[in-house]
Amino acid sequence: MDLKGKKIAVLGAGNLGIAIAQGIVEENLTEAKNIFLTRRHTEQIAHLAKDGFVLTSDNLEAVKASKIVMVCVQPKQLPALIDEINPVLTADHLLVSVITGVSIAEIKELLKIDCAVVRAMPNTAIAIGESMTCICAPDHAEHGIAVQQIFNALGQTLLIEEKMMQAATVLGASGIAFFMRYLRAATQGGVQMGFHSEEAQLIAVQTAKGAASLILENQQHPEVEIDKVTTPEGCTIAGLNEMEHQGLSSALIKGLMVSYEKIKNIK
Ligand SMILES: NC(=O)C1=CN([C@@H]2O[C@H](COP(=O)(O)OP(=O)(O)OC[C@H]3O[C@@H](n4cnc5c(N)ncnc54)[C@H](O)[C@@H]3O)[C@@H](O)[C@H]2O)C=CC1
Ligand SMILES: O=C(O)[C@@H]1CCC=N1
């Protein structure tokens, strides 16, 4: 979908809403003046006015002016928001929900009209065009493809079944935090070995980027790349085996599963 000239309402300009808006502008999909950012207290996002975004606490104004409505509030804030915008929503609106754990059927129950609803699950790297965004649109395949085209410009995308959205949230959206924690720990290890923290962080971060790029470009199994690094009797296999004795893979998988269980009771 070509966003040029189209108005977009981002309802709930918090961490993710702002990141999406910044990504859209960064990747030249449209100009900031076409994006309404709503928040109940706009003074907290006043710094974004200089970038050209339209800031308002008036959700109705934003929805009336826009064709695409991105709903970016917390799950518990959704019913009140939909209640508020119901009077101005029309069948021509395209609603894109990034909200965790709320199904399309649940959203449609809150709506007074039958507009297209698509769920998208990006992550905060969308601000720099590097998101992994999973999308589902069980009732509106053509809208799902249109929304996918938007997110394609903001990283990689995957159209998935709605039943997989919770797993996509843990792996792709929460995943940013999980990888950040690895980077923090690696940096701390680097400092303990004698690097200044900025040096340690650069080495850890560029190495993580290289590891991810190897997999993305070569489409190999991670173990194939690991085998290339682990010199016999070398330091890599010694460290790797100790990490596994300490439960690295197990801790990661257990963390993912606790996160996945939590989504089921998130509202
Ligand atoms: N933060 C992330 O990395 C990701 C978040 N999500 C989902 O995106 C949604 C937003 O998450 P965050 O941005 O982290 O939360 P947040 O709390 O930073 O942002 C929500 C914003 O909505 C505003 N808000 C609440 N009710 C409003 C209303 N009626 N009108 C206008 N603004 C209103 C709040 O003041 C807040 O600034 C959540 O449902 C979350 O599950 C999904 C993927 C990634
Ligand atoms: O922590 C959360 O619940 C949301 C969903 C994924 C990222 N943030």
TrEMBL record:
Sequence positions that bind NADP(+): 11-16
Protein origin, superkingdom: Bacteria
Known catalytic reactions: L-proline + NAD(+) = (S)-1-pyrroline-5-carboxylate + NADH + 2 H(+); L-proline + NADP(+) = (S)-1-pyrroline-5-carboxylate + NADPH + 2 H(+)
Alphabetic keyword roster: Amino-acid biosynthesis, Cytoplasm, NADP, Oxidoreductase, Proline biosynthesis
Pyrroline-5-carboxylate reductase catalytic N-terminal domain boundaries: 7-99
Residue span(s) of domain Pyrroline-5-carboxylate reductase dimerisation: 162-264
Binding site for NADPH: 59
GO biological process: L-proline biosynthetic process
EC numbers for this chain: 1.5.1.2
Keyword Iron-sulfur (UniProt): no
Pathway assignment: Amino-acid biosynthesis; L-proline biosynthesis; L-proline from L-glutamate 5-semialdehyde: step 1/1
SUPFAM superfamilies noted in UniProt: 6-phosphogluconate dehydrogenase C-terminal domain-like (SSF48179), NAD(P)-binding Rossmann-fold domains (SSF51735)
Record carries keyword Calcium: no
MF GO annotations: pyrroline-5-carboxylate reductase activity
EC supergroup of this enzyme: oxidoreductase
GO cellular component: cytoplasm
InterPro entries membership: 6-PGluconate_DH-like_C_sf (IPR008927), NAD(P)-bd_dom_sf (IPR036291), P5C_Rdtase_cat_N (IPR028939), P5CR_dimer (IPR029036), Pyrroline-COOH_reductase (IPR000304)
Location(s), subcellular: Cytoplasm
HAMAP family for this protein: P5C_reductase
Function: Catalyzes the reduction of 1-pyrroline-5-carboxylate (PCA) to L-proline.
Family, as annotated: Belongs to the pyrroline-5-carboxylate reductase family.
Protein name, as recorded: Pyrroline-5-carboxylate reductase
Organism for this UniProt entry: Marinoscillum furvescens DSM 4134
